[in-house]
Amino acid sequence: VQLQASGGGLVQAGGSLRLSCATSGRTFSTYVMGWFRRAPGKEREFVSSVSRSGLNTYYADSVKARFTISRDNAKNTAYLQMNKLNPEDTAVYYCAARSGSLYSTNPVEYDYWGQGTLVTVSS
Question: In what order do the strands lie in the sheet containing 67-72?
């Protein structure tokens, strides 16, 4: 499975961005999808995850009520809508795919990774 993340850019604090994660292959619906981020000088951290059906979503406390994860299995694409962005959200954002049905916040439990897309939030 190949993942291609896109949609990053420069935005002012309070603004919004929508990230997309396009995947290859016909097995997209069999993967739990997740978003992670790595801020400068920090470890990679979990942001959000969505179940295979799209019905169940999970968020880090730091993004809850601001970010929304979703997926379109017909388009083999996952999304991360990011609202009310603040400078602390500045990071490279990665999408990842995990085999099986259980969500996870642990990056080592994800099997496939995209190349990352940079989000920069100015104050």
Answer: 3-6, 17-23, 77-82, 67-72
